[in-house]
Please model this.
Amino acid sequence: DAGVIQSPRHEVTEMGQEVTLRCKPISGHNSLFWYRQTMMRGLELLIYFNNNVPIDDSGMPEDRFSAKMPNASFSTLKIQPSEPRDSAVYFCASSYDSNQPQHFGDGTRLSIL
Amino acid sequence: AQSVTQPDIHITVSEGASLELRCNYSYGATPYLFWYVQSPGQGLQLLLKYFSGDTLVQGIKGFEAEFKRSQSSFNLRKPSVHWSDAAEYFCAVGAGGTSYGKLTFGQGTILTVHP
Model:
C-alpha cells in the first residue's frame, strides 16, 4: 500500500515567493496533520483536519501560512510570502481515526534564501 | 494540556548492549502513548503504541516499552542494539476522543551506536 506522499521532497526559493507543499494521505484515512520540524523547536503541529474540515489551526505561526483540504485525498500547505525563518522540514501525516497511529510522509525540506 | 519529556538528548551505546530511552508524560486521563523512530532524511516510523491493557507492549525491530502509570513513564527498551538502530527516537502522547488523534511529541533522543 502506498504511504503518505508529499511533494516536492526539496524546495529552495527566495524570500517573498509563494511556496505550496502538497500531501496525499493514505486512502481511507480521515485525519490529516501538518507538522514543522526544526532543530530549535522540534516537531510542531501546525494544523489538522478531520473529514476534510480544519479542526485546530492554533499551531499555524502566522497569517502567511494557510492550509486546505479540498477532498479526502489531497491537502496543501501554503506560505505567502515566505521568509528565511520558515526554512524547516514540513511533514504531513494521516490516521484512520483518533484511536489509530499517525503515518508520516517523508517530508518536504524547505529552504528560503 | 498534555506534554512529553524525553530527558536524554543524546545517548551512545555499543552494538550488542542493551538500551533504554526514557519518556515521561503529563496527561490527566489514561493517555495513548507512542514511540516513533526517524532516520536521517526520512519521516517518522511507528515503533509501538499503548492504548490500554497489558502495560508491556511489543513493537517492531525488537523494541518494547512499558507503561507505568505511577511514574507517568513510557520507557523504550531493546535488549541488544544493532548498528542500524542509530536514529532519532520520539515519544508522543495523544488524548484520543474528540482530539482526532492530536499528538504531542517529545524533543527526541538521538541514539548513536558504536561498533
